Each structure stands twice: as C-alpha cells, then as structure tokens.
Amino acid sequence: EAFSKQVDSQKDHLQQAEKQFARLAAAQKKIDTQINAMINGLTSIENGLQQVSDGQGALAGQMPRLESAAGQLAEGQKKMKSGLGDFSSRLSDLSSGLNDSVKGLKKVSSGMMGANDYLGELHKASDKEMTGWFVPKDALTNSDFTSVFNTYMSDDRKTTELTVVLDNNPYSNTAIQDIQAIKASVKRAIPNTDLKNASFGVSGVSSMNADLKEVSDSDFKRTAMFMLAGIFLILIIMLRSLIMPVYLVASLVLTYFASIGVTEYIFTHFFGYPGVNWAVPFFGFVILMALGVDYSIFLMDRFNELKKEGTEPAMISSMKNMGSVIISAAIILAGTFAAMLPSGVLSLLQIATVVLTGLLMYAIVVLPFFVPVMVKIFGRANWWPFNLKK
C-alpha cells in the first residue's frame, strides 16, 4: 500500500513532468517559430542591406550628376537673384520716370497757363505792328531783365545799345562790308516804325575801319587827281612837252594797277587772304608815284639833253647812261621796303609787296620797253607843241 502510494505519487509527478515537457515543447516550438521568423527577418535584413549597398553604389555613381545639378541649381539661383535685382532696379527707374513724368506734366501745365497769359496780353497789346517783339509784363518786371535795361539803355530809356557779333575777322574787308550792310538795313527799317525820327550810329573796330576806308577812298580819289595833275605839270615844265608827260603818267598808272593785281593774287592764292587791305591802295599809290616819276625824270631828262642826236640815238644813249643808275636805285629801294616784310603786320606786308613789285616792274619792264616804244612811235612829236626840232 505504501508502495502503491509512492507509485501513484511518482505517477502524479510524471504526469506533472509530462505536462511540463508538453509546455516546454510548446514553448520550444514557439521559440523555434520565432527563431525561424528571426532567421527570415535577418535574411530580409541581409537582402535589404544588399539593396542598400546597391543603392549606395548607384548613389555614388550619380553623385557627379547630383553635384553638377546642384551647381546648376546654385547658378540658377544666382541668376534669379540678379534678375530680381535688375527687376527691382527697373521698377525703381520706372518709378523715377513716372515721378519725372508727373513733374514734366506739371511744367507743361504751367507752361500752357503761361502761354495762355502771354496770348492774352499779346491780344491786348496796343501796337499791333510790333507784336512780334512783344514782351510780357512779368518779364519786364523781372530783376534779371531790368538789369539788361540798365546795362544797354540810358537812365531816361531814350538811348539803347545793340551788340552785333560778326562771324568773321573784325579787321577783314568782309567785316567792313558787313558794317555797310548793317547800316543800310537800319536805314531801310527805321522809317517804317515809330522810331523813324530816331538817329543811330555804329561803332566798334569794324565800324572804325569802315569809316577809315570810306575816308581813305574819298581822300584817295582827291589825292590821286592832285598827284597826277601835279606830276603832269612838273613833267610839262621839265620836259617842255605835252606828249611825253602823257605816256609817262600812263606808264606810272599802268605799273600801279599791275602791282596791285600781282599783290592781290599773291595774298589770295598763296596765303588765303580775301584781298588787299583797305589802306594798301592809298599808300601804295603815293609811294609808287613818288618813286616812279623820279626814275622817269632821270631817263627823259637825259633824253632831252641828247635830243639833238636824233630820237633813236638819244634814247639809246640815255638808256646806256641812266639804265644802271635807275636799276641800282630800284634795287636799293626795293631792299629798303623789303625790311617791312618781317613785321608781321598785314597792311605793311601788302604795302611792301606792292612797292617791291611796282619798282622792279617799272625799272626792268616799263622804262626799258614801254617808254622807248612810245618815244619811237611819236618821234619828233614827243616835244609837241613846244619844240619840234631835232
């Protein structure tokens, strides 16, 4: 019975152990299932890691492209930033332009109002003929405009000064002609205005030269007539002839005009001047007449002394005896007047050129050729009407 109890006790223990083993087997089965699941998970992880590794390799291969794309993206961002800056600047310019436009419109509006006021005052002006010179009241009362009145008008406002600026050399012949044109224009215009009883005058360097030229031209005519008449009378008395003084005076006048022509040609074609100065004809004429008549007297006085030899022998002997004297005197005087050339003064340069040309021409061409030909042509009539004998 005790053994049976032990057997039953062991049986109970075995049953409990079997239950425990059953439980342990079930737990082990769960563990095995979990281990299998873990193995599968690890396999999945391994596969995932492999994919990650492959992805990393692919990503590493795409890194240059990503880097280039990132650079392009940065460059695009810079351009976008610059574009936004330019756009902002354009908006600022547009805003400034709109402000200027508003200011301009205000000025236009103000100008339109001023023009309306001006037209209103112009319509009410009493002198309809002078409306082209109409000055608005606001301008007349302006301080700057009033200072102009004080500068160019007298205190009683009855005398005014108009300044005319020429576009050429004020000392030139063109400026002198312009002065004459200005005077003529004023004379034509004044009678048709309210200033018809007003007097006017023109001053300035060009006007002074124009006045001097006018006086010189007037004096030149009188001087030329007096000099030629005086020379003619002196030659008549010295040569006792009316014929010889005629062609001698003619030779002097011919030489003068030839030298003036040569001088003008030289200064216009070689030096670019518009012509000879207004003072040159007067002084050139006086000097050439005074010197040239001396040379003609030297020759013809000796011709008169030898007239008994006959017309042709007397002229040939006179040329032999006096030719060297006349040419030497002409060269010396030409050298004297040539000293005026370095002066740099235009009028002196031209006067010296006229005298040089005239003296050399008269001594080398006129006296040796023109005078002997005239003596040959007239023959015994050279001494008409005083003495026709040989």
Description:
Helix content is 78%, strand content 0%. It is mostly helical. It folds into three domains: 99 residues; 69 residues, no CATH class; 167 residues, Up-down Bundle (Multidrug efflux transporter AcrB transmembrane fold), CATH 1.20.1640.10. The termini are far apart. The mean pLDDT is 75.
Can you describe this structure in just a few lines?
By secondary structure, the chain is mostly helical.
Question: Keywords for this structure?
Answer:
single chain, 390 residues, mainly alpha, Multidrug efflux transporter AcrB transmembrane fold
Q: Please tally the helical runs, counting DSSP H or I stretches of 4 or more residues.
A: 9
The backbone outline, from C-alpha atoms, is: elongated
Total strands: the figure is 0
CATH class of the largest domain: Mainly Alpha
Largest sheet: none
Could you tell me the radius of gyration in angstroms? 61 Å
| Structural class computed from helices and strand pairing | mainly alpha
